[in-house]
Design goal:
single chain; seven-stranded mixed β-sheet; alpha/beta; globular; about 40% helix
Length: about 525
């Protein structure tokens, strides 16, 4: 076994441990208490909801990592196929503080809503939540209203919203079923009210009980809030599936619901090289370059009568630190930009700008494979126009209208993160490999810059420089930047949509490209002013 494979497997084992924390929810005690009430867990509900044998692409599973809150933020989000329709699915995890929403829950839910909006997906909410985590209400109440606004806007865009209510849905949470197009409630389990019996007693003096105040049967027979009354959780899921089956859903690419159910996707060939070999390709030291073409041929479709060539490279002899070209992934055409030697020079920036314009001209999505230390610095390069050429590339990325996908496979430092379509540039999806790092610059470089600045300040004041303090400062800064540039930290901040096994990259991208095809793909010819 190669050293590279060993190192990557160790990182993947760490990733599995962190994902296990999210799956564990509130812990064994609270999971068992939940089951003792005859209830399914959030992920069990999702598994029954999606079509048998289909994948569920979980998003932001490490949300809240490194914070005071449970990893996963008491919410499961992801994309699954229900009755042949790709849907955004959100599920409260009631084993974590009764499914109460904390600030990270909110951010994770907003990201799910953004993905659903951009890709024109129906949303299914599996509801069981006690509302806001009250100690953090100041971080939830004001921005939380966006959640309800977005539900109504989704309905106005003809993106159906469906709520399956399995338990408590109280206070602001009551507006989830209240504002969804379709609402299903489980008999003797669902409780939907703006204020529970204690709050009603305090506010009005009225004595009431859960069932008369907000029980499923009351809402089905009296208030009319429930469109369907389910006898149990399995029945609620059955009803939810039937609702989706009757949506008359139509994808922009013309693939019908029945076609997706019987024969998902379109015809394609598996890669020419085994994706398993990706674990042997990635150096343990990010400073060591590797050829991104070796990654590309293990991710894109192999040879077939329809595509002729696995990867049609564009401008292969110009700007060689950036590889650009055309390929297919699971039958979907894609334009690829992949960093080769880490640094982006003027030639690479100009090459990327032209390639992005071409993709927009022919309405083809773009995939960015990050492994860059940023744009080149130095007097020669500044005089050569690196700023304006980098600005051209960032202009093109910013104003491009075709869908973008990003995978950080190595380093993603400095303005290179911007030019390669980092999170700030709203890619449809962004995933990270467990070896990747992202920051304003490398830890040693950042600590070194601060040291140079401090030394110059001391010299300007005529004071001796404390070398011992400098060494301590550099070590502290390097450690802090190293920790804050690691995948788990960044994923916990929701700066990506998940940390993935490199071997799963092709599958994940295939799902994303299929999801993107639900909405029309249209490029643009308007990029603003390019500095020349």
């Amino acid at each position: 076994m190669s050293d590279r494979r060993t190192a990557m497997l160790e990182k993947l084992a760490e990733l599995d441990e962190q994902h296990a924390l999210a799956v564990a929810g509130g812990g064994e005690r609270y999971v068992e208490r939940h089951r003792a009430r005859g209830k399914l867990t959030a992920r069990e509900r999702i598994e029954l909801l999606i079509d048998p044998g289909t994948a569920f692409l979980e998003l932001s599973p490490l949300a809240g990592w490194g914070s005071d809150f449970t990893v996963g933020a008491s919410l499961v989000t992801g994309i699954g196929v229900v009755e042949g329709v790709e849907c955004m699915i959100t599920a409260n995890d009631p084993t974590v503080k009764g499914g109460a929403s904390n600030p990270w829950t909110l951010k994770k839910g907003f990201r799910a809503g953004q993905i659903a909006e951009e890709n024109h997906l129906p949303t299914i909410s599996l509801v069981e939540s006690g509302g806001a985590d009250l100690p953090t209400q100041k971080d939830i109440f004001i921005p939380g209203g966006k959640m309800f606004r977005d539900l109504t806007r989704a309905s106005a865009r003809k993106q159906p919203t469906i709520a399956l209510v399995f338990g408590n849905s109280t206070a602001g949470g009551a507006y989830i079923p209240g504002m969804s197009d379709y609402t299903v409630m489980v008999k003797e389990q669902a409780k939907v009210f703006l204020g529970g019996p204690p709050l009603v007693k305090m506010a009005t003096g009225e004595e009431s009980d859960d069932e008369s105040l907000g029980g499923a049967e009351m809402h089905a027979r009296t208030s009319g809030l429930a469109d369907y009354l389910a006898v149990d959780e399995h029945d609620a899921i059955r009803i939810g599936r039937r609702i989706v089956a009757r949506l008359n859903w139509r994808r922009a690419d013309g693939i019908t619901r029945e076609h997706v159910k019987l024969e998902p996707g379109v015809a394609y060939e598996e890669p020419e090289h085994d994706p398993e070999e990706l674990l042997d390709l990635i150096p343990t030291d990010l400073k060591e370059p590797f050829d991104p073409r070796e990654v590309i041929v293990r991710v894109v479709d192999g040879l077939s009568e329809s595509n002729g060539v696995v990867f049609d490279e564009f401008k292969p002899l110009y700007g060689s630190s950036l590889v650009t070209g055309w390929a297919k992934i699971h039958g979907h055409q894609i334009g690829i930009l992949a960093n080769a030697q880490g640094v982006l020079f003027s030639e690479e920036a100009q090459k990327a700008t032209q390639f992005i314009q071409l993709a927009n001209q022919i309405d083809v999505p773009l995939l960015f494979l990050h492994n860059t230390t940023g744009y080149m610095v130095g007097a020669e390069y500044e005089q050569g126009g690196i700023i304006k050429h980098g600005a051209q590339m960032i202009n093109a990325v910013s104003n491009s209208k075709v869908p973008h996908l990003s995978v950080i496979i190595g380093a993603s430092y400095g303005a290179g993160n911007y030019g390669m379509n980092g999170r700030a540039y709203d890619p449809r999806f962004l995933f990270t490999w467990p070896n990747a790092k992202s920051a304003v610059m490398g830890p040693q470089q950042l600590a070194g810059v601060l040291s140079i600045v401090a030394r110059a300040a001391a010299e300007a004041k005529g004071k001796p420089y404390d070398e011992e303090a400098d060494a301590g400062m550099r070590a502290f800064i390097e450690q802090a930047v190293e920790e804050q540039s690691l995948p788990f930290f960044l994923s916990g901040m929701l700066y990506d949509d998940g940390v993935i096994d490199p071997r799963d990259t092709r599958t994940v991208l295939g799902i994303c490209l299929s999801v993107i095809a639900n909405a029309p793909i249209e490029g643009t010819d308007r990029f603003g002013v390019f500095r020349m």
